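cache lookup: miss for this entity combination. No prior model stored, computing from scratch. Input as submitted by user K.M.:
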Amino acid sequence: MTKQEFLSGLEEKLSGLPEEDIRGRLIFYSEMIDDRIEDGIPEESAIMDLGSLEEIKKQVLSEIPISKLVKEKMRTRRRLGAGEIILIVLGSPLWLSLLIATFAVVLALYIVLWALIISLWAVELSLIVSFMAAVAAGIVLLCQGRGTEGIALIGAGLVLAGVSVFLFFACKAAGKGTVILTKKIGKGIKSLFVRKEK
Amino acid sequence: MDVQVKRGLLDVCVLAAIKNEDSYGYKIIKDMKPYIELSESTLYTILKRLETAGMLTVRSAEHDGRLRKYYHITGTGLKRIELFKEEWKEIMSIYQFVIREDQ
């Protein structure tokens, strides 16, 4: 890849970011490449050193606050005509409520997801408690001389303990998965702002 | 390392890289390399942040027939380094307390 190819590729990747930010970064990278070449590094590997365009894009995205992306998107929109403004205001009972409803549904789904995980943990906890109770009751029965019932109860308790071990790992994985999902959604919203702009 | 901590450290590192004389992007990365790895896009973000915070100023100067940006530390930037040194003393005494358990 030549310097020119790299820079135009980068410009394309970053489209949607604030104009000033893109220009600043292009000048910056151009200087970086020139300085590397001057340092005796061949053009090809000077550009390789900078990392792939996709990596750079990811890094830039993670460093730019989402508020800036949103602001930029608002700013680059063309000015609205009077008719459109009237339509937006008149339609607000419709689109505003739809927007709020959509937001509420998404939020509700998210809460349900966490509720599910909490209930999983609740089941896990109740399994452990019943395991302990069954074993304790079994021992009491044994002491009272009701051997068969006591052993049966202790056996049932051990089965519960086994199930709870399995469920523990499932609970942990589910919690972790949801946290990862949350992060992914956050990133997805961010890239939505960048990709749409062209 | 914690992201916030690393961010703060990198800011001070970049300031330290231009403390004694004005420097430019590639040189800053090269000077810091033995101590801490820094990617170009991160450096760009840091320089912008420090400029906005008034800790450095930027000037373009001609070099070998092209423009190169030189970064100059301001009084606020120097103060930031001093503050860092003070903070670090505190952190080191906390560190001493933490590792005390290990001995």
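stored under new cache key. The helical segments of chain B are 3-17, 25-32, 40-52, 75-100.
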